[in-house]
């Protein structure tokens, strides 16, 4: 008597919860998602191609614009790749400051994530609480490098400037404040019945499946796979730091949430160790005036807040710009998982899952 | 002449205007309270501490371009906000703000009218309001509003049953459907019904949140999922009508809850003579204070909780609230017979 049709719903690129210009073409049966086609590319600026016509130092500025909520980690990743290619020794002081910046950046990025993720699920207060603390981090960055979003905070071989006097004290002060605030977020969410019902068992992905899809970072660790570039292939000063890598079990949205909440605490632990132990010494290693890496190629990955951020660089050894510049952005690879995750869930879960993967479209499209 | 025409007309005028002003300031209150909960200031620019913000909002909404989508069903699209707003306003006819008092020698009752089926009137009129939402979603001819209106209708059906069942237990207690009689019954029985009917009270509050589409049950307008839900395609004053209707409904729910469960206009401990000095405060003030506490509670909830999912909401309604409400009704009936 009645027949039903699938409803094609175009979610995005202008939608409040797709975190930028992500477009998901959903095929719905009622409110149930039958399939979802993820369309990307709305924020493509050609950063990789653009880099081939910039000299090695100018590219640092372009890396800011990829994951724009975690610019400092992008800078560090790129500079370390070039240093690896040129075999430059980075002084210990610079490596310590890099570690502090990376971890501050991770907290800032996770603040933005916890705020928007909770807001997608309807808890709007967490958003403003998290932004209140993110503001403190931005102030610290502003004091260090003068910028609040796109920092351009690194140079090949070290740092552009030494840390301002008293900056490490302020960082320790921040660690003290933030430790309490993380508890505050958790109080609003972790044991909240509605939050549990909305996140437990949503978007379950097993460890092997997550590996097969190429997920990395918290989405991978939420499924119980132990993989953290900071531990496995230490860079900056992570080999001298004590910290744990939190792991999930079920691989659902709730476990990914718990993993990131624990990362807040571990990051604070790392910052505390690093800020207390900043060694004296130079901030830039022995870098030639003209940066011209020898012919060759290299891949170097770091653990960005979103996952494994890798740079692949080819130098022909003759010119002052890269022959090929390629980024392995964690958001792009994590977004691969979205289609698998949303199948069979409801529209309301789609926004929860986009939030749970924590993608930044600037990095997906580049 | 004065008693039959002038006084009722003045009362209608006062109640209607007080409601509309109350509703606009309710919006400001919500913004302010949520702002304080989130450690910010809220509106501060228009007037001292933003007290004139509702006026600015009203002016802005009135001079905004009023767009009707080309593919929309024009008549239904226009009628939907009105269907949503009118029931929310006419419910106030039977809400008693106070008992009969004497003003300049004329006995004036502080309610527009006291019909003997007051509660039934409220339930039936209030449920008309949701047709506005359903029609808005249907008439917009757009996918997000359509999903929202489907949610709204499902939500209303499941919650109306539970809420009405709790009302029946109150009717059993008071032996009347008239709002004024229910308050008087609470006076005569020396207790607010919230204390003898805690389950009914709880179910009523949860159901009230769901019926007014308030967080954590605000699925029909879930901004993060449905980009605004049923009023996605509306702009200007027609959007404002939906907005005002939602807040007017909130005030209705808190007024009804105050009347049925918190003794309406009665002061705390109305039968304790030692607290007689509390009578210096006029009865309608007690009513407003109690309603205000309810409204504050609604806002507080919104600032705190995440949103339920649509199917979880259905489960809560059908599997938890309705069985509880039926059990509560049966127990009330048995006790009533046994104790009589």
Topology diagram in text:
The complex is a heterodimer of chains A (366) and B (340).
Chain A: E1 7-11, E2 23-29, E3 32-39, H1 47-51, H2 58-64, H3 71-86, H4 92-120, H5 125-145, H6 167-189, H7 193-199, H8 207-212, H9 218-221, H10 229-232, H11 253-276, E4 296-304, E5 307-315, E6 324-328, H12 330-342, H13 347-357, H14 361-365
Antiparallel strand pairs in A: 1-2, 2-3, 4-5, 5-6
Helix pairs in contact in A: 2-3, 3-4, 4-5, 4-11, 4-13, 5-6, 6-11, 12-13
Chain B: H1 2-37, H2 53-63, H3 74-90, E1 100-103, E2 106-109, H4 118-139, H5 143-174, H6 179-188, H7 193-196, H8 198-211, H9 223-226, H10 236-261, H11 283-304, H12 310-339
Antiparallel strand pairs in B: 1-2
3D architecture notes:
The complex is a heterodimer of chains A (about 375) and B (about 350). With about 375 residues, chain A is mainly α. Chain A has one domain (about 5-365): Cytochrome-c3 Hydrogenase, chain B, CATH 1.10.645.10. Chain A has 14 helices and 6 strands. Chain A has helices spanning about 45-50, 60-65, 70-85, 90-120, 125-145, 165-190, 195-200, 205-210, 220, 230, 255-275, 330-340, 345-355, 360-365; strands spanning about 5-10, 25-30, 30-40, 295-305, 305-315, 325-330. In chain A, strands 1-2-3 form a 3-stranded antiparallel β-sheet. In chain A, strands 4-5-6 form a 3-stranded antiparallel β-sheet. In chain A, helix 4 packs antiparallel against helix 5 and helix 12 (about 330-340) packs antiparallel against helix 13. The N and C termini of chain A lie far apart (about 50 Å). Chain B has helices at about 1-35, 55-65, 75-90, 120-140, 145-175, 180-190, 195, 200-210, 225, 235-260, 285-305, 310-340; strands at about 100-105, 105-110. Chain B has a two-stranded antiparallel sheet. Chain B is an all-alpha fold and about 350 residues long. In chain B, about 65% of the residues lie in helices and about 0% in strands. Chain B has one domain. The longest helix of chain B has about 35 residues, at about 1-35. In chain B, strand 1 (about 100-105) and strand 2 (about 105-110) form a beta hairpin. The chains are: A mainly alpha (about 375), B mainly alpha (about 350).
